[in-house]
Structures are given as structure tokens and as C-alpha cells.
Amino acid sequence: MTQAIVLFAHGSRDPLWRAPMEAVATRIAAQSPGRQAICAYLELCGPSLPDAVRQLVADGATAVTVVPMFLGTGKHAREDLPLLVQELRTAHPGVQFHVQTAIGEDPRMTALMAEIACESPPI
């Protein structure tokens, strides 16, 4: 089984906005060289989630984990993403899909955000 990760975010026309998501994908590639990681966006830029998954499947992925790069489970994670994933399951019946909870709801992420917020400002 070839596992792949899709970092799924809202999207923006501003390439600077996308830089943190792309940095996560780059870090995954460095830490896990055998695992494919790609960013996908709901709107305003590409690739879309279906396009990203199509690319991963063409490259041999048989299991895809979708990581919602949202701080919370809002409308996009709660309503839009499940519909998109159902369409992906229909389009790629031989691929296993797993959807994680919104990244910001992971206790490790909230702990890290609290730690960063409490840092002393530089003097």
C-alpha cells in the first residue's frame, strides 16, 4: 500500500498565504521520503482536492489521508469536505481514504499555539 497525504486548506490568491501549507508538505517529504504529500485547496487557487488526489493516484497512491488545515471544524470541514471525499471514494474505489479532524483541534496543536502565544517578546 502506498500512502499519501493531502494537506487541505481553504485557499487564497496570495502565494504568501499558501507558504505555510507548502512548508508543511516540504517537511513531510524531508521526514518521510517514501510518503507523498501534496497541498490542495477548496477555492481561489489550485490544485483542487480532486486534482491533487488524481495526481497522487496516478503516482501510485492506494491510501490517502486528508488533513484539514483548519483551526476548527467550521462549515468547510464539516460540510464541504465530507461531500468532496465521498466523490473521491466514488471516483477512486480502489483507494482508501481517511480524513483527520481539523488540525487546530488536535491537543498537540492547541498546546503549541498556547506556548507560542505565551513567548516573551524580544527585548
List the helices and strands and how they pair.
Layout: E1 3-9, H1 15-31, E2 36-41, H2 49-58, E3 63-68, H3 75-91, E4 96-99, H4 107-117
Parallel strand pairs: 1-2, 1-3, 3-4
Question: Quick gist of this model?
Answer:
The chain has 123 residues and is α/β, with parallel strands linked by helices. It has helices at 15-31, 49-58, 75-91, 107-117; strands at 3-9, 36-41, 63-68, 96-99.
Overall description:
By secondary structure, this protein is α/β, with parallel strands linked by helices. It has four helices and four strands. A four-stranded parallel beta sheet has the order 2-1-3-4, sandwiched between helices. The radius of gyration is 15 Å and the shape is globular. Its EC number is 4.99.1.3. It holds the Pfam family CbiX.
In terms of DSSP E residues, the strand content is: 15-25%
Unreliable residue runs: none
Overall tally of structural domains: 1
Which architecture name does CATH use? Answer: 3-Layer(aba) Sandwich
Calculate Rg over CA atoms: 15 Å
Structural class: alpha/beta
Largest sheet: number of strands, sense, barrel closure: 4 strands, parallel
How many distinct beta strands?
Answer: 4
- Give the neighbour order of strands across the main sheet: 2-1-3-4
What's the N-to-C terminus distance?
51 Å
| CATH domain fold name | Rossmann fold
At the first level of CATH, what is the class?
Alpha Beta
The string of secondary-structure elements, in order, is EHEHEHEH
Q: Estimate the mean pLDDT confidence.
A: 93
Helix % is 40-55%
Give the number of helices. Answer: 4
Shape: globular
Organism: Acidovorax delafieldii
GO molecular function: metal ion binding; sirohydrochlorin cobaltochelatase activity
Protein name: Sirohydrochlorin cobaltochelatase
EC number: 4.99.1.3
